[in-house]
Amino acid sequence: xxxxxxxxxxxxxxxxxxxxxxxxxxxxxxxxxxxxxxxxxxxxxxxxxxxxxxxxxxxxxxxxxxxxxxxxxxxxxxxxxxxxxxxxxxxxxxxxxxxxxxxxxxxxxxxxxxxxxxxxxxxxxxxxxxxxxxxxxxxxxxxxxxxxxxxxxxxxxxxxxxxxxxxxxxxxxxxxxxxxxxxxxxxxxxxxxxxxxxxxxxxxxxxxxxxxxxxxxxxxxxxxxxxxxxxxxxxxxx
Amino acid sequence: xxxxxxxxxxxxxxxxxxxxxxxxxxxxxxxxxxxxxxxxxxxxxxxxxxxxxxxxxxxxxxxxxxxxxxxxxxxxxxxxxxxxxxxxxxxxxxxxxxxxxxxxxxxxxxxxxxxxxxxxxxxxxxxxxxxxxxxxxxxxxxxxxxxxxxxxxxxxxxxxxxxxxxxxxxxxxxxxxxxxxxxxxxxxxxxxxxxxxxxxxxxxxxxxxxxxxxxxxxxxxxxxxxxxxxxxxxxxxxxxxxxxxxxxxxxxxxxxxxxxxxxxxxxxxxxxxxxxxxxxxxxxxxxxxxxxxxxxxxxxxxxxxxxxxxxxxxxxxxxxxxxxxxxxxxxxxxxxxxxxxxxxxxxxxxxxxxxxxxxxxxxxxxxxxxxxxxxxxxxxxxxxxxxxxxxxxxxxxxxxxxxxxxxxxxxxxxxxxxxxxxxxxxxxxxxxxx
Lengths: 238, 434
Description:
The complex is a heterodimer of chains A (238) and B (434). Chain A has four helices and ten strands, in the order H-E-H-E-E-E-H-E-E-E-E-H-E-E. Chain A is of the alpha+beta class and 238 residues long.
């Protein structure tokens, strides 16, 4: 008898969340706001010189970003295509400066990629964890400012007639993954309200690791902006 | 119906003014009201207060104030300065001490000629304006007394000392007044009075205090505090000049600054010492004495991009002008070829260097133009293709090899042309070929 009661309880627990899911508004997109830490491997292109470290020390570039994706498939998890943009910067004292000048590096990566979220744990068994993996292409616009706050400008040491302006775009790709934690478990009532009033089905806290390969796909004439990046933030599924 | 109204505060000297509607007709009113009003006026006059049937002089305005015999020095005297009109500051006071200024006025005489009196009240002196012949009062100087005004414009000569009080170092802020008293020549029942106030601001603001001077690459950043003038709507002048002494005016300056910080980026060179100072300027254009003077020298610095290039960084940065615009990406192999051609071939000769210099000076404009035009980009790519082949040949075979290849190509093209030409004209008699 007890066994039967226990089984009945387990079935009920498994069904009730499904009933809640069924009551949700349709969902097909995810929007995320993130803060990220980025450490470009610029110095790895040199044998002994460390221009990045000389200017910015060992600090990370810090930035904010947003990403939105559309779920293409929803069987055995979800597969989504998305695009995002971020803004990262770091400021340091000018190299070899006898003055108080500062120099900054800014980067604005724009990404286009795919994300697979294994959300069956949350959907079917109410385990509020969603692991995911993502990969895609990146086009990063970057620029360097000098002590006057202007775009840095110098000449090619080997070709003095060539002016080299400290801004460009660098292409590459990224891959990695992360874990989303479903916040709805803290307050089903609030989650229901957000869904009914704003159409936000689920909210997540996430932490993510990505490997960015950002060097014009290995071009010898590219600045090495590749990095391991860690980011975290909020996701809203709607 | 014409109505007489009672108004207050139009002029300092007239605590109560009776204002007529803007017609010059004789005032009439109901007898009861008139009797009451007349009684009030009698009582006030008995108490020693100035009462008049007075209105603003129709269309009265000050047109300008210029120094007699030296107009060029008077462009702002008596006109708007900052947000204040008719202001005399320390500089004016000192410059025109003992001199005369001419004040030009305009009046609307469309309804008839006036008798008028002009009078100056010295700083903080109020003068009686109850009649066209007010009589002598201390501090009240009559310039014109009861004369006929038949032109809309008139002027009067005033000793500036009468307006300023004569003591330019008094460190005071007072008000002088110009009184224009008028009556229509054919209707003397109403007296018109217009009073123009001149702010005689002889108080200079307190000098700001420089809190820091930081140095940059061809730049000095100056910060200062100014607690004493807080809320006084002052602006700041920054002065700098080479060396340790600073004079006002200095060699270089930047005026009318509103922030309490300034980046000196013009007329400064690295490793040269400059003296810098700041003054505050109030809305009457009075300038404070110079702040504490600081000395600093801009110093060179290397930004990250320079450090990257100096270390041998290979990314050329920028957007490779026309070719990048055409190919859409700076990482194209063709662009690498073109860059190699530039570095290995063109930059080895003076003619090539001139070409590269001109290209980097002007090429960006072409790139910007074609960047958003797909058709032009395609055309440019097509046109660049043979050039890239040629550049490749130069890079691979060297300059001489490239030239030989170019000559060979020319010979081949010439031979092909000749061959085609022969086939076409094979059966055409020589005499008709031309």
